[in-house]
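pinging the channel bc i need a second pair of eyes. not urgent but kinda urgent?? the chain im working w is below, pasted from the shared doc
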Amino acid sequence: MSLALVKAELLKFLADKSPGVFCLTGEWGVGKTYAWNALLKQAREANSIGYKRYAYVSLFGIDSLDGARSAIFENTVASKDAGKSASLETLQNNTNFVLKTLGRKSLGFLQNNPVTEGYSKIINPIAHLLVTETVICFDDIERRGSNLAIRDLFGLISSLREQKSCKSLVILNRNELSEEDRVDFDKYLEKTVDALVEFDPSAQECAEVALEGNSRVHIQLRKECVRLGIRNIRIIKRIERASNEIEGILKDFEERVRHQGTHTTAFLVWQTLSTDAPSLEFLEQKRSRARFGMINADDLSVEERRWNSLLNDYDFGEIDPFDRVILDGISKGYFDKERLRAEAQTLQDKLRSQDREGEFHDAWELFHNSFDPNEAEIVAAISAAFRNTINSISANNLDGTIRLLKDLGRTRVAKELLAYFMANRIADRDFFDLSHQPLGAPKDPDVVAAFQQKFNSFRDSRDPKDVLIKIAKNNGWSNEDTALLRSLSVDDFYKIFKSTKGTDLDRVVRVALDFGRIGGIKAEDAKIAQVATDALVRIGKESRLNARRVGKYIAL
C-alpha cells in the first residue's frame, strides 16, 4: 500500500469515534512509528482525534499483562497532548483521577497500609477498569518479554475494544516474530484486528517523510537518499544530523564544497550503518582498481559487482582525504573541525584549479576550432589564460604554448610568458626534472634550458649518507639521488665513510662503487664511483689496518 493510502487510513482511524483495532506491520527502520507520530501530530493540530485520551505503549521488555496495563495507565495523556511524552505530571493526574474515583477513605487506607507496596498493586487494576474511550498505540510487540504471550496480549486488546470502547493500533515487524508467535498472531489477527496494513514505503516516500525541511541540505539529501535506495528512517535521520553538522563546519566554503560534504556524508553514514552498503574493505582495497579496469569483473563477487555499479551511479569514486575526515568523525561520534576545514580548503583549491584549467583549454579552442583570421585574438586569449592559470599548466602545455607563439612570430610574447612561468610557477624540484615528465620532455630549447637552470637551483637538503643507504635497500635510485651524489667531493665521501659504522658502512661503500661497475650507467653518474674510490684510497693510506679494510673494495 502506498504511503498516501496508509496516511489516509490512519487519519480515518484516528478521527473515527467508534472502537476498533488497526495493525500496521513492516520492516524495522522503515518508519512505522515515525509516520504514526507525524500523523498523530497532524490530527492533534487539526483537532481531529475522535477520542479524548491517548496512550503510547512500547511493549519492549514488558513481561506480563499487569505490566501492559500499568504502561497504559502511566502513559495516558489528553488527546490535545497526543504524541508528547508522558511525564510525572501526567502520571500524577492519572493517579489523582483514580483516587478521586475510589474516594477519600480509600486514599487514606492506601497511603497508610504497610502491607501494600506503595499501593500500586491495588491502584493499577482499578486504573485499568477506568480506561475507556482511549486511543492506544501498542508498539514493539516482537520485542516484548518472553512471558507475555501473543494470545494474552490480543485478549487484552479485544477486551479494550469490546468492554472499554477503546481504539488500538498495533505496530510490529511481523517477519521478526518467532514461528510459534507468528502462528498465534495469524490466528488472533483474524479474530481481533479490523484492518491490517503492510507499511512498505519507497525510498522516495521515506525521504519525503524523514526530511521535511527546505534548506539546501534537506533538498540535496532527499535526492541522495533516493539514489542510495535508503528506506530506513533511523539511518536517514542520522544522515540528516551529520550533514547539518558538516554544513555548519563548512559554512564559509563554496557551495560546491559544501555540496560534496553532504554527498559524502550521506553515503558514509549509510555505509557505516547499513548491511546492504559496500564494505569498507572493498572501498579501500578494490574500488579504485575496479574503477580503472585494473581488476577484471570476473575477479569480483556478485555482491562486489553490484556495489561497483551502485558507486558508479552515485558518483562516488574512492575514499580521498576529505572523505576520510568525515568517515573518522562518523566512527568517533564527533568531527575534527580544523582537520575537516583543512581538507575542505584543499578540495576548494583543487576545484578552482580545475576551473583555471578549463579557462586555458577554452583559450586554445580558439586555435583549434576554426580557420578564421583571428591570430591576435588567439594570442591575447592564450596569453591571458596562461597568466591566470599558471599553477595548473604542465610542462608539456608550457612547451606547446611557447612553440606556438614562436611559430606565429611572437617571440617577445613567448619570452615574456616563459620568464613569467619560471618566476611564478609554484612547484617542487621534481616538476622541473626533465627526465620525469609523464608526457615527454619539452622540446623548445629555451624551455629546456630554463627547466635545467631551475632544477639545478634547488638545494637538496637530504643527508647523502641516508640517500646511499636508501639506494642500497631499494636497489634503485632516482635522478634526484644521482644529482645529489654527483655534487659530492672526495672530502664529502671521506667524511661519509669515516662516520658510518656497522652494516651501513658496507652498504654505502658498495653503492657508491656500483656506479662504476653497472652497465648502462651515464658517464656523468660513473664519476660518483671515481670520487668515492679516491676517498677510499685516502683512508687506506692512513694505516696498515685501514689498508686491509679498504682492500675488500678496491686494489691499492
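so Residues 46 and 323 are 45 Å apart (CA to CA). and The first strand starts at residue 20 and ends at 25. — does that match what u expected or am i reading it wrong
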